[in-house]
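Morning, I've got a small favour to ask if you have a moment. I've been staring at a protein lately and its backbone has me curious. You're getting the sequence in one-letter code plus the fold written as tokens. I've dropped the whole record in just underneath, so have a look:
=====
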Amino acid sequence: MKLSVIVPVFNERSTINEILRQVRAVDVTLELPPGSTLEKEIIVVDDWSTDGTRDILQEEGKSADTRVFFHECNMGKGAAVRTGLAHATGDVMIIQDADLEYDPEDYRALVRPILKGRAKVVYGSRFLGEHKAMLFWHSVGNHLVTLVTNLLYDTTLTDMETCYKVFTAEVARKIKLRSPRWGFDPEITAKILKHGYRIYEVPIAYTGREYGEGKKIRGHDALTVLWTLLKHRFVD
């Protein structure tokens, strides 16, 4: 089996080395059938960082398991994920943020339902597992957009906005993404559900950053998410 880890990056100079170290270190082979082997590729997409991250990635890209792609202007997380998916060659794909809020040790739990044939799409829920308490309005926003997702698409997710979205190459080939920025999460969720895939959730650990530590999403981004959910409910 080949696992593709897609890492969209924007101005993460202080964390990028550590998250790549963690991704390389995690051992998923325990979940494989006896005698099976695992190949892991890491695809990093820098979305025009200006804080020195690009210089660090020039060095990280020399690792045999890592490919780095650079955007020539800031296009947004969704665009960075699309670039990553376009170059991924794995059987299973994981989206990994670069800010250390999510722990790659959860990969084993995330891929287990796929390897056991229970699902083709798995989300890691921050609200089912242990987690650092979120800011109140950030939590409200997450619950609101998840509730709207459940109402519009007849599902029962607990965390639509999670970074940890895991899916097979089959799913990746069918989902055509267009949203460049914060519309990525609702768009991919909407299209996964509209294609008839049910999403399997597993608990994950979460250590959220404060805005002073570099957290980028803001309250008004919830409006983009809600509009994207509504739009894709009725059009492609």
